[in-house]
Design brief:
Layout (H helix, E strand, L loop, with lengths): L6 E5 L12 H8 L3 E5 L7 H23 L1 E6 L6 E7 L5 E8 L9 E3 L9 E6 L9 E4 H6 L2 E3 L7 E9 L2
Parallel strand pairs: 1-2
Antiparallel strand pairs: 3-4, 4-5, 5-10, 6-9, 7-8, 7-10
Helix pairs in contact: 1-2
Length: about 170
C-alpha cells in the first residue's frame, strides 16, 4: 500500500494507551512515513517544540512526493530486535529516504549497517541527515555499496532515537 493512504500522526505524550513518552523528533520521523499530521494540543508546546514542529512540517513538505509516491522497502522489522528501518525510493531511483529508529539501546552494541534496496547499482549517492543537510559531512557512496555492504547507523546511548537519511544520485 502506498504511504499516501496511511494516516500517521504525532500524538501527545505520555501516550494515552501505554503511557510511553518518546521524543518529538522520533514521533515526527515515524509520522512522516505516512500522511503526516499532529493529533495533540499544540498550544501546550514550548517555543522550542513549536520550532521543531515548524521544521518537521517544512521537511515533510519537501519530502512528501518521495514518501507518498516512492517505492517502500522494509529494511529492519520492528518485531525482530531493538530497531526498525525502512526506506522510500523514487521511481527514477535518483532520490531515496531512509528512516532508522533505535527503539531500545543495547549495552555494548555491535556496529550496525543497513543494507539498502532499490537504488541504481552503478550510480553514486550523496547521503546526508535530512534534518540538517547543511551541517552534514558530504558522504558519497555507490548504490551497489549501499545495497550490498550497507549504510552505517549510529550507536546511540538511550532509547527512542531516530534519523532520516536523504539520498540523492550524483550527476
Amino acid at each position: 500500500i502506498n504511504a499516501e493512504y496511511m494516516g500517521a500522526h504525532v500524538s501527545a505524550i505520555p501516550n494515552h494507551q501505554v503511557h510511553r513518552s518518546t521524543p518529538l523528533e522520533m514521533r515526527g520521523h515515524a509520522a512522516m512515513s505516512g500522511n503526516f499530521g499532529y493529533e495533540l494540543d499544540l498550544t501546550t508546546f514550548t517555543e522550542a517544540e513549536k520550532e521543531a514542529v515548524k521544521r518537521q512540517v517544512a521537511l515533510y513538505k519537501q519530502l512528501r512526493p518521495l514518501i507518498q509516491f516512492g517505492e517502500f522497502y522494509r529494511l529492519s522489522s520492528p518485531f525482530h530486535g531493538v530497531d526498525a528501518a525502512w526506506m522510500f525510493v523514487s521511481e527514477d531511483r535518483k532520490e531515496a529516504l531512509v528512516a532508522y529508529f533505535q527503539v531500545l539501546a543495547e549495552p555494548n552494541a555491535p556496529l550496525k549497517k543497513l543494507r539498502l534496496k532499490g537504488l541504481e547499482a552503478g550510480s553514486n549517492y550523496l547521503v546526508y541527515d535530512a534534518d540538517a543537510p547543511e551541517e552534514t559531512e558530504e558522504l558519497i557512496f555507490g548504490g551497489d555499496d549501499l545495497m550490498h555492504i550497507g549504510l552505517h547507523v549510529p550507536i546511540w546511548k538511550g532509547d527512542y532515537r531516530s534519523r532520516l537519511y536523504h539520498l540523492t544520485m550524483e550527476g
